[in-house]
Amino acid sequence: MQQLSANDIRSIARTNTTPIPIARSVRQINQIVATSMPAGKMVPVTAFPLLREDTLRNSMIHCKVDLMETAEIIKNGVKCRFMAYFVPFLAFERFNGGMDEFNRSYMKQNIADGATVTPFFNTMVAGAVGSIPIHKYLGFHAAAADTINTAYIEAYNLIWNFRARNRSETLYQAKKRLMTATTLAPAFWQHEQFKYVVPDWDDVAMEGSVDLSFTSAKVPVYGVGFDPTVAGAAGAVSSMRHATGVTDNVNNYNANSGNVKVKSKGIAGQVFPDIYADLQASGVKISLANIELAKRTQWYADLKAQFEGLPDSWIIDLLMQGVSVPEQMWKQPILIADKTEIFGIEKRWATDGANLTDAVVNGAAMCDLDMVLPRTPTGGIVMVVAEILPEQLFERGRDPLLFITDPAKLPNAMKDDLDPQKVERMSKGEIDTSHSDPNGLFGYRPLNWQWQQSNTRIGGKWFKSAPSNTFNEERQHFWTVEVTDPAYNSDFMISEVFNQLPFVVTNQDVGEVQIHGTAIIEGNTQFGTRLLENDNAYAEVIAQVDQGRITKGV
To answer: Which ranges of 168-247 would DSSP assign to H, the alpha helix?
Structure first.
């Protein structure tokens, strides 16, 4: 029998799925940005696209934010957080996370069931110049009647929703942004002193549970029965309903309800029923296999926690089975850089004789973002967002010792070490002593955590007995954003309530952003050669060339 050669095999291989090799090019996108930003918002400051199969090589962007003038030096820290995300095009909701539908859309083909084509780009009319805040802060321009796509708007909203879902599923469900939203979204608070407090926790996973088995299928119950002096009546009996709701026949022998007796006992002149089940006589078994099952279940529950931000339960189930889902990473935003800087604040005094008592206060924060991405099969958008937020003070939080009146309330090493549930309740009064419901539940924290949490104390002329967001000249040294009766809700996680009271001008953007850097991208994009201005050089040269051909045989 004749054997096929390698060339023969290649000649009949007509179902190869490996793309042809394309000469890769390298392009450099310089990022030169000047924009402004309000505080308390997640602001897009720069963005650029990656095409399909592009790779983001070592790229660095230098970010600087200047804080506008304040009346006094702000004593609590003011932070600026810079984050760079890559949002794959596959993450856009209209593709439903399906690579097949994504590719069909890219090639403008009907989806698999023969329905219409899914548009790769959604479009909109730009509208009045500057009417789209997301585009305005990015510095994108379009005439009012121009048709534009919504890719940058969708990427921004996907980033915010992704962060919200990572922070809290409850927050995501309550505040999820539509893909068409064009306004700036609230920033996310960074509560370092309360980062271990949660609104709820999985007590079942912490405790575990072990099933018990009785040696007898039926446990005898004492204290209820029939009068033994009454003879039973034979014959068919109508059915009866049990406490569980199950209905069946009483038996072939029965006595009417008037002959039912209940054992009783007297306590302090009152009658109580004395009914009990004898569990000791029945015997109880604990299976070692069930104990091991409880331990293993706890272990798997801890592992599952890392997937809780994924929207599809079946994806989580696959990952929990150890099955890789390669495309999953391209279905959601990817954080590629994250840095938080504290503004350096300085006060500069006037130097001219007439104004020596006058001064201005400014601040600045800067950082470098290093960004690298592997080859991206879907393409997408790299977007850098920034947030300016003051450090929240929680100045009326309870001192952990001040409210203790019994030494039994202090930590006890032996008792605490043996506590099977090392969790404690945190009341609303602990975060704000002026709370109208001081004993209400705020959240849960690890046992004894209040003995190592950070505390902020502001006293003297700056002492403040209740929350207020109105102007107070004495308090211009502090940038406080607070709500009455704080609770572990959206206000605690995102900056929905905000003010800019310490600034000289309170109704304008408080930050001025400068960005310089270079994005180096390797991809399949093919570029034309350098163009030179037309000087007819080719025509002049070719005119001097004898282009005639010899006719053979003549």
So the answer is: 169-175, 203-207
